[in-house]
Amino acid sequence: MANKAKLEALLTLINTSARDAIALYEQYGEVPAIDQMEPHPLDSAVDQVALKSAIRTLEDCTQLVQVYDYACVRVVARENVSDILLNYPKGLHVNELSKKINIEPKKLARIMRLLATRGCYSEVDMDVFANNRLSLILLEENPVKHMVMLHVEAVARGASVFYDTLKDPKIAYSYEPTIAPTMYATNKEGTEGTFFDWMAKHDGTREAYHTSMRGLNGIMGSLAVLTQFPFEKFSTVVDVGGGIGAFSLPLAKTHKNIKITIHDLPEALVQARGIWAKECPEALAENRVEFKELDFFEQVPVKGKDLYYLRNIIHDWPDHESALILSNLRKALGPNSRVLIHDYVLRQLSRKQAVVEASKLGVVSAPEPLLANFGVGNMRAYQQDMTMLFIHNAKERTLQDCLTLATAAGLKLEKVWDLAEACVLEYSAA
User: Residue ranges of the O-methyltransferase C-terminal domain (predicted)?
Assistant: First the structure.
C-alpha cells in the first residue's frame, strides 16, 4: 500500500471508529467529556465489546496511550486526593490541598499538573485542580483504585529491580515465582515465598487484591462474557480461584438458572461469604451458590459440572504451575463439560499469522495499515504481560502458547470468544 493510501486509510479508520464510539455513547445519553463528574451509563454497561472495539481501533490510529508516572499516582492515591476534591467541584487551590495532606505545595503542584497534563484531574485555574472522569477511578470506593495501588506499589517495586534480575546469574533464566522481580526486591526485606504468600502476611492486602479483581470488570470489559457466552444453556458453573466473586456475583444476578461453586483458599472464602451475604443474599437463601476450599495445585475441583471458569488465573503462573492447574482441572471434567479460560491473549504482529488465527479461530485482527495486533489499541495486554512477569514470573500468552499448554493437559480448543480486549477460550476434554 502506497504511503498516501495508508494515510487515507488511517483517516477513514479514525473517522469510522470515532463515529462508532459516538453513536454507542449516544444510545445511552450524551457523549461524555473528560471534565464532567458524572459517570456515563455506558461506563457500567455489562457488554462493552462494541465500544472497546471502536476505541481499540481509534487508539491505535492516534497512537495515544495513558501511562501515568507511578510516583505521582502513588501520591494522590495514597492521600485520597480524589475523595478530597469531591467536596470542591469548582476546584481547590493547591495551597489548600497541601494543608489537607501535608505535602509541600510547590511539589504538590508539579505532581497535580503532570497528572492533569496526562488527562487525570483538570486544572481549572492557575494551581486550582478539580476531579474529572479519569480521576474518579481513584476514589476510595472504586475497585479500580485497588488495582491502581497494586501497580504503583508492588509492580513498581518489581520494575525498579527488573534489570538486576535479568543480569543476576543465579536467577536470570529462572521462572520460579518466589524470585520474580517484585519478590526479588521484597526478599531483601526478609520476606520469602510467592507474591500470594507475601499478601497473606499483610493485613488488608489480600482483601484489597480481591477487591481489585472487581475493578477488572470495568478495565477489561470482562462482564461482556455474561451476554456473549450462552450461559442460559447451562445449569452449573465452577468459578475456579473465584475469590470474592468478581465474576460469579454478576453471574448469579443475571443468570438465576445457574448453581455456582466458588473454589478458592480458605482465607479468600471467608471474605467471599461476607460479601455475598451483603450483596446477593437471595443466592445464598436459594442455595444457588456454594463455597468450597481448593488448592488447585494439589486438588481436583468438584467433578462433573457443566462449566469451569478461570478468569485471570492461568496468567498468574509460569508454565509448570499452570500445567498442574489444568491437569487437575481436566480430571474433574465430565463428557459434556466445558472449560472457559478468560485472559488476555497476546496477538501476533505478523499479519500472516494473524490472518491464520482470524480465519481458523475467529480472532479479530486489525485492518491495514494498522499493526495486525491493533498496536497501542491493545497495549494494556502487553503492559499486563510485564506486570505478570514483575509480580509472578508469569505471563500473558499468545494463542499458540495457550494451545500448547491446554493440549498437554488433555484439553481441546472448541472456540475463541473474542471480547475485543480479552478473550475467552472454550475447551472440552480431549
Answer: 195-353
